[in-house]
Write a structure and sequence with these properties.
The complex is a heterotrimer. Chain A has two domains: 72 residues, Orthogonal Bundle (Arc Repressor Mutant, subunit A), CATH 1.10.10.1590; 81 residues, Glutaredoxin (3-Layer(aba) Sandwich). Chain A is 46% helix and 8% strand. Chain A contains eight helices and four strands. Chain A has a four-stranded mixed beta sheet, covered by helices on one side. The longest helix of chain A is centred in the last third of the chain and has 25 residues. Chain A is extended and about 75 Å long. Chain A starts with 6 loop residues before the first helix and ends with a helix. Helix content of chain B is 41%, strand content 12%. Chain B contains 17 helices and ten strands. Chain B starts with 21 loop residues before the first helix and ends in a 6-residue tail after the last helix. The mean pLDDT of chain B is 97. About 3% of the residues of chain C have low confidence. In chain C, the strands form eight sheets. In chain C, strands 15-14-25-24-23-16-17 form a seven-stranded mixed beta sheet, with helices on both faces. The chains are: A alpha+beta, B alpha/beta, C alpha/beta. Chains in contact: A-B, A-C, B-C. Chains B and C meet through helix 13, helix 14 and helix 15 of B and strand 4 and helix 2 of C. The structure holds flavin mononucleotide (FMN), iron/sulfur cluster (SF4) and FE2/S2 (inorganic) cluster (FES). The site of FE2/S2 (inorganic) cluster (FES) has 12 residues of chain C, from loops.
Chain lengths: 209, 434, 854
């Protein structure tokens, strides 16, 4: 199992588990890591996460399948999300989606023939002041007209946006530095003492009044 | 005219370049509030927040101070920050975490100190890739600066903060679903009772769940005192608040305005704020507080931006997002799209929500796209009534969480106010406006 | 003013009903006479309140609100309305929503006729659907495991199955996937739903989403006849409803017996119906069903009449001294059969040499003398101590029950390597083969034991936890049949002595082993559990006696060869003596038989059985045996008659009456009062009333009346205490002295003979549904030990012990304790070799095995 992640990710995977009081909590971050390596959630990736989180592959898959960002089938290198929810709808989101689908040659939920793009009809992406909202690999691209989108597609095809739009799966390029640092036991003991002291103080105060 | 003389609290660094970096944050007074808090007793810090009577900014509007006071005493307890922001047309938290992440982090540390917890989790919506990067960076910097970790700023207080990404599910904004997701499970809201995570939350331990905007107010309150915060606004709605304005308005965006002193008219029409309807159109209707809220018509424009003021008129201020619909807007289409959202986002536990949302969506789709019948309106309303009996406000519910009873809001608003437009759709065999 | 406070109560539609505060409201409402419709609620699982069918109005601080009555807990003074318009509308609304996407394919659905959704729809649904949209479509049905089919279109997302897997079985091998109205249930693609408990999900599915392959289109419920009985697959004795059609058992469902199985069954009991029997002409195959008596003539077993066969059997017995006759086996008989054969052997033939255990159990006298714990007592114990094999494999439903107990009490496991129960254990005490005696002594002394994993700290902690044994239940059996039983027996005596308050639950192998021992099929126990002063020969002593020429005729009750690890010795003994076999199925044992007497098996039999907690319960015959097979009591009585002893009776009812009359041991007459979950032999205090049958708790068990289960509002007649639990516990027998222990060998591993549920026994062999789940036996060794011996995972090896060599394969498994090698007992490798039998050194306290590459 532990052989699944490539070396740099394996270390991050193991660190992730230690950030939580219970290993299972690391499920979602670990699944993002699987997608960073594979682009989607492979069966081997799911089993690796099950082993790290002390759960079953069925549980991990059950969890993963609940969330829109996790893909049990491969998606494009660039996963394009177009919001059609109400604010974007009022600003031409549905029309933008049609344009994206016809430009990339794949319907929402599908993948382009060359495997470079996949399209998703998104729910509100919380960028409604710049509607209609388009994301590529969960980065806001702010192409608000068909023409702007077409330029973006050219840039993506020619690799000019690698610096700000990494391939699908690379969720956060900023890594947490270091694990937990609060000395848990000490803190607990200290807190208990402080709490008792305060309680005694309060009791004393009550008695005197 | 809008009353715009209140201090900017959570957007005080608006327009400051690189405000998301520790350097700029420190230059603009950052982490002073934390130092101040650490010089006080935890109880005194909590008392300041209580005095501010800061209402939660996540949607439910429960006073933060009271929520904190409910935290059950236990050897282990947690603070969880809700930055899942997925309510359609809500984008204020998105603004805060990208532009002023340190303010969020500082608010969390102060709150954790007041609550005496050792570990806090910041649950961020997965689609906010940049926000997650900025927050992670801020947390890294805060550790390096000594504001997080062991013995913060040399005090006896230690805290770990973990930025936890979501993965795309609106329901994880509901605090108990969020906790489940944080436990590595499917985002199923927990059945109540227990009513509050403050009694039984993360891993069954007492847990406070607060919104990002709620947290962002904390540093200011500590520096300026709860009383100065409470002096802003009126009644139960104190302080300022972020409003996310979108739709058919000239200047969509996030605006911080003093509560109650301003009205929806101010927000939508004031040149310094919304600037009026886009393309010179006419206001038809607006959603006053996120898509879960029943709609308002121009008649309610002069309602003050206050929780109880909006509540008493049968809607809610909710997440502070205002969607403007004008005379070019097809309300059937808007209401259908909102139902589609709920149907896609229902977690699927409760029968009425899971099956009802999809059924209503399909009928609404027919009404918009052809194949609708007038009797469908009664059918839809009856289905709504089976999810939220009585169709009153606040809604009764047959479900575990309030996503279910949110489904009827827009459908009911659209049908009751714009029945003639539905009739036109039925007569035309589809949308007459496209 | 009244002194006594009235008991807590609630009002249901104006009627008052007493409640236990904290119980689910839905249960209290039922007692008030109203059945609230429900789908997700199951009385044996935590309520989750998701289907929303059970909404009722509950008065609260903000006036009456709709609340799920399954989830809300009853509290004193609550006021509930179940009949208002509001409630009716809400419930009808939920039902309509449930049906909106449902395919309504009842005519072709296996659940049709016993489907709670169908019943609800017929009772309350409006005739016409308002739903005119396209329904959800899925491929239907798909296979998700060895026994289970899934039709996702019919699923109503109640999550009973997934909760059963996670909460009750502790193995989340199926879960909900997807979201909203795309929610389905599914296993992980590469991991089929092959839990040993998979059939329970079929039983509790309230619609036809999960169905059993074996039941697919097999029958319609209204064509099935049904009777309540007891499963004899293992010593738990689960209560079952046996359903048949045209003299064929079609399916078995678990009955909610509070004391025993609480509605659960394992797949072996549920699907091991012998449906694959009768297909083989090969007498040595379990797939051959014996239909007529046989006598060996000219080397061939030849069909004869009963009188010829009994005459030949009588001749064999008379041809030798009574002391030269021995009886082995019998744990699969009913109490009546066991009693009749014990009487035949002891009174008519005149031998004392009987043993139902194949050296794989514990001293019968010791077992009888221990203070018994019931399963419920074990589940509710303050401390549960286990010294036994992997219960999920050997006694699956006991595993389920203890798993739930361990969530309240403290579970201490003495184990070689962690097993299925270890997930919920609080303390694991590691014992390698040969160490159990010293480790138990160490714990009782509160001191660590050098050379074992028990350290001072752990010993002290456990010593304090165990106290004087109050609230302690020790679940004990043979963790390892490759280890001398006297080691465990010594540990049991020490625990009994050291923890005077402790009670014991003994986990013996095979169906009615406890009943067989109590009926006198043991060297040192008389029928009715009296201790014998002059014990006869045990199983092992009988094998030795044959070899020495002092035993010349052997009566085998069942199949010895596939049940013992002393296969070679047993085969040699059968070879050297005259053999009469009484059995229902073919087996290797028949190769040595001179006379074969065909007996009824399974649900062809009527009588009583005694489970591992000493609970006697009734076995009802549902189908008649093929050919001219007789029940065991009749065979024994007729044989006795042939030998000149007229008992004046034959058949199970008469045998049962005689058991009761002669020994006071509970029998059919006591049990035919349907109000109880059986009777525990020496525990009048362990009597428990049957639970009301919840039609949706166990859909498929049709009506309370047919099964004889107390109805919802029924009253219960108290039994006369004198008839119950009247059997006295015998005194503690003397210890059997133990020889010296072998010296550990640095190049050898200690053999642990584990257990696989799907072993080579008759149940699995005769069932077409189970046989496919059998896996060939392989060795399992800790990865570091493999490395130490320069072996790799999956490698072909030779395993050697002082007994012999076998060529086999070895797998790495980090759940195996270092220094040991685990091999499933009663299982063969792909070449048909029983690895444990080939390796075990029967006369050594434990067995050393060297594993080398080949
Ligand atoms: C369906 C649903 C979605 C919600 N989404 C969010 C959200 O995205 N962000 C948020 O802060 N609160 C959300 N809430 C409210 C939270 O449950 C909770 O009340 C809030 O996070 C508490 O923080 P506050 O007291 O600081 O407002 C949602 C509630 C529901 C029922
Ligand atoms: S109301 Fe809807 S979203 Fe909320 S718990 Fe029920 S099914 Fe899930
Ligand atoms: S919600 Fe009570 S039975 Fe399903």
């Amino acid at each position: 199992m532990s052989g699944f992640f490539r070396a740099d990710l394996r270390q991050r995977a193991e660190e992730l588990v230690t950030l939580y009081p219970r290993p299972r909590s690391a499920t979602i971050p670990l699944l993002h890591l699987v997608q960073e390596q594979e682009g989607y959630l492979s069966e081997a990736g799911i089993e690796a996460v099950a082993a790290l989180t002390e759960t079953t592959p069925a549980e991990v898959r059950g969890t993963a399948s609940f969330y829109d960002m996790f893909h049990l089938e491969p998606v494009g290198r660039y996963h394009v999300g177009v919001c059609t929810n109400v604010a974007c709808l009022l600003a031409g989101g549905a029309e933008m989606l049609e344009h994206v689908e016809s430009t990339l040659g794949c319907a929402a939920g599908g993948r382009s023939a060359d495997g470079l793009f996949s399209v998703e009809e998104s729910e509100c992406l919380a960028d409604c002041n710049l509607a209609p909202c388009v994301q590529v690999n969960y980065r806001y691209v702010r192409t608000r007209t068909p023409e702007e989108f077409d330029v973006l597609v050219e840039d993506l095809r020619s690799g000019r946006r690698e610096h700000d739009i990494p391939p699908h799966g690379t969720h956060s390029r900023v890594k947490r530095q270091g694990g937990l640092r609060a000395p848990k036991d000490e803190v607990a003991a200290e807190r208990a003492r402080a709490r008792d002291a305060r309680a005694q103080r309060d009791a004393a105060r009550e008695e005197t009044t | 005219m809008a009353v715009l003389d209140a201090p900017r609290i959570v957007t005080q660094r608006r327009g400051v370049p690189d405000a998301h970096t520790l350097k700029v944050y420190l230059e603009t007074g950052g982490y002073e509030a934390l130092r101040r808090a650490l010089s006080m007793n935890p109880e005194e810090v909590a008392a300041e927040v209580d005095a501010a009577s800061l209402l939660g900014r996540g949607g439910a509007g429960f006073p933060a101070g009271r929520k904190w006071a409910m935290l059950r005493r236990s050897p282990v307890s947690y603070l969880v920050i809700n930055s899942d922001e997925s309510e359609p047309a809500t984008f204020k938290d998105h603004y805060l975490i990208e532009h002023d992440p340190h303010q969020v982090v500082e608010g969390i540390i102060i709150s954790a100190y007041a609550l005496q917890v050792t570990q806090a989790f910041l649950f961020v919506r997965g689609e906010f890739a940049l926000g997650i990067e900025r927050l992670t960076q801020a947390v890294n910097e805060a550790y390096a600066h000594g504001a997080l970790g062991s013995k913060i700023f040399g005090s006896d207080f230690s805290l770990d903060l973990v930025v936890h990404p979501g993965a795309g599910a609106y329901i994880c904004g509901e605090e108990t679903a969020l906790i489940e997701a944080l436990e590595g499970k499917r985002g199923f809201p927990r059945i109540k009772p227990p009513f509050f995570p403050a009694v039984t939350g993360l891993y069954g331990e007492p847990t406070v769940v607060n919104n990002v905007e709620t947290m962002s107010n904390i540093p200011w309150i500590l520096l300026n005192g709860g009383a100065s915060f409470a002096a802003l606004g009126a009644g139960r709605s104190t302080g300022t608040r972020l409003f996310a304005l979108s739709g058919r308005v000239k200047n969509p965006g996030v605006y911080e305005v003093e509560m109650v002193k301003n009205t929806f008219r101010d927000l939508i029409f004031d040149p310094a704020l919304g600037g009026g309807i886009a393309d010179g159109g006419q206001l038809k209707a607006f959603i006053p507080g996120g898509v879960s809220a029943p709609w308002f018509t121009p008649d309610q424009l002069d309602t003050p931006l206050g929780q109880d003021e909006v509540g008493s008129l049968g809607s809610m201020l909710g997440s502070g997002s205002v969607v403007v619909m004008d005379d070019t807007t097809c309300v059937v289409r808007a209401a259908w799209r909102i139902t589609k959202f709920f149907s896609r986002e229902s977690c699927g536990q409760c029968t009425p929500c899971r099956e009802g949302s999809g059924w209503i969506e399909r009928v609404m789709y027919r009404l918009e796209h052809g194949g609708g019948r007038m009797e469908d309106l009664e059918l839809v309303l009856d289905l709504c009534d089976n999810i939220a009996p009585g169709l009153s406000w606040p809604p009764a519910q047959t479900t575990i969480c309030v996503l279910g009873p949110s489904i009827p809001s827009s459908v009911k608003s659209a049908i009751s106010t714009f029945r003639d437009e539905f009739a036109a759709h039925v007569a035309h065999g589809g949308c007459p406006y496209v | 003013m009244s002194e006594t406070t009235p008991p807590p109560s609630i009002t249901v539609d104006g009627r008052s009903v007493e409640v236990t505060p904290g119980e689910p409201l839905i249960e209290a409402i039922a007692r008030a006479g109203t059945y609230v419709p429900r789908f997700c609620y199951h009385p044996r699982m935590e309520p989750v309140g998701v289907c929303r069918m059970c909404l009722v109005e509950v008065d609260g601080p903000r006036g009456p609100t709709l609340q799920p009555s399954c989830f809300v807990k009853a509290s004193d003074g609550m006021s509930v309305v179940t009949e208002s318009e509001k409630v009716k509308k809400a419930q009808d609304g939920v039902l309509e929503f449930l049906l909106s996407n449902h395919p309504l394919d009842c005519p072709v659905c296996d659940k049709g006729g016993e489907c709670p959704l169908q019943d609800q729809a017929l009772a309350h649904g409006s005739g016409e659907s308002r739903f005119i949209e396209e329904k959800r479509h899925f491929e239907k049905p798909i296979s998700i495991g060895a026994h289970v089919l899934l039709d996702r279109e019919r699923c109503i997302q109640c999550s009973r199955c997934t909760r059963f897997a996670a909460e009750v079985a502790g193995d989340a091998s199926i879960t909900l996937t997807g979201r909203g109205d795309q929610t389905e249930i599914a296993p992980a693609p590469e991991h089929p739903f092959d839990s040993v408990f998979s059939g329970n999900t079929v039983q509790i599915c309230p619609v036809g989403a999960l169905t059993a392959k074996s039941y697919r289109f097999a029958a319609r419920p209204w064509d099935l006849e049904q009777v309540e009985s007891t499963c004899t697959g293992c010593a738990v004795g689960c209560r079952v409803a046996v359903q048949s059609s045209q003299n064929e058992v079609i399916r078995v469902l678990g009955i909610d017996s509070d004391s025993v199985n609480q509605s659960w069954l394992c797949d072996k009991g549920r699907y091991g119906l012998g449906d694959g029997a009768d297909v083989s002409a090969d007498l040595t195959s379990p797939r051959h069903r014996l239909r007529e008596p046989l006598i060996r003539r000219g080397g061939q077993l030849t069909p004869v009449s009963w009188s010829e066969a009994l005459a030949e059997a009588a001749r064999l017995v008379r041809s030798v001294d009574p002391d030269q006759v021995g009886v082995i086996g019998g744990a699969s008989l009913t109490n009546e059969g066991a009693y009749a054969f014990a009487r035949l052997a002891r009174e008519v033939v005149g031998t004392r040499h009987l043993d139902a255990q194949y050296d794989d159990g514990l001293d019968a006298a010791l077992v009888s003398a221990l203070p018994l714990a019931t399963i419920n007592e074990a589940v509710r114990a303050r401390v549960i101590v286990t010294i036994t094999d992997d219960l999920r494999q050997s006694l699956p439903v006991l595993f389920l029950r203890l798993r739930s107990g361990a969530r309240k009490g403290t579970l201490v496991q003495f184990v070689t390597g962690p097993d299925a129960l270890s997930d919920v254990a609080h303390h694991l005490v590691s014992v390698r083969p040969g160490e159990v005696g010293s480790v138990v002594q160490g714990v009782l002394a509160g001191r660590g034991v050098t050379g074992t994993a028990l350290g001072d700290t752990q010993a002290a902690t456990l010593r304090e936890l165990l106290g004087e044994g109050e609230g302690v239940v020790v679940v004990v059996g043979r963790a390892n049949v490759a280890e001398d039983p006297r080691l465990v027996e010594e540990a049991v005596r020490d625990l009994h002595r050291g923890l005077p308050g402790a009670r014991f639950l003994v986990t013996l192998s095979r169906g009615n082993v406890r009943g067989a021992l109590d009926m006198g099929l043991a060297p040192n126990v008389a029928p009715g559990r009296g201790l014998l002063d002059t014990p006869g020969r045990s199983f092992v002593e009988q094998l030795n006696a044959v070899a020495a020429g002092t035993q010349r005729v052997t009566l085998v009750l069942g199949d010895v060869l596939s049940n013992t690890v002393r296969q070679t010795d047993a085969a040699r003994a059968l070879e050297q003596s005259a053999v009469v076999v009484v059995a229902g199925h073919g087996s290797d044992t028949l190769a040595y038989a001179d006379v074969v007497l065909p007996a009824t098996v399974g649900y062809e039999r009527r009588g009583t059985v005694t489970n591992l907690e000493g609970r006697v319960s009734a076995l009802a015959a549902k189908v008649t045996a093929p050919g001219s097979a007789w029940d065991d009591a009749t065979i024994a009585a007729e044989w006795a008659a042939t030998l000149g002893a007229e008992w004046g009776w034959s058949g199970p009812d008469a045998a049962s009456a005689e058991i009761e009359a002669r020994t006071g041991y509970p029998a059919l007459s006591v049990l035919e009062d349907d109000a109880y979950d059986g009777v525990v032999i020496d525990r009048a205090d362990a009597l428990s009333h049957r639970r009301a049958l919840d039609p949706i708790g166990t859909p498929g068990i049709r009506s309370a009346a047919t099964v004889g289960v107390t109805s919802l509002a029924g009253t219960v007649r108290e039994p006369a205490p004198a008839t119950l639990g009247g059997v006295e516990r015998p005194a503690m027998p003397d210890a059997r002295p133990l020889g010296s222990l072998p010296t550990p060998d640095a190049y050898a591993l200690r053999l642990v003979a584990g257990r696989d549920l799907y072993d080579d026994g008759t149940t699995v062999g005769s069932s077409s549904a189970l046989a496919s789940q059998r896996r060939p036996a392989r060795l399992r060794v800790h990865p570091l030990d493999l490395e130490h011996f320069a072996l790799s995972d999956g490698q072909a090896v030779v395993a050697r012990s002082a007994r012999g060599d076998v060529s086999c394969w070895v797998d790495a498994d980090d759940a195996v304790v270092r220094g040991t090698v685990v091999v499933p007992r009663l299982s063969r490798d792909q070449d048909g070799v029983d690895l444990v039998a080939a390796l075990v050194e029967p006369d050594s306290a434990w067995t050393r095995v060297r594993v080398e590459s080949r």
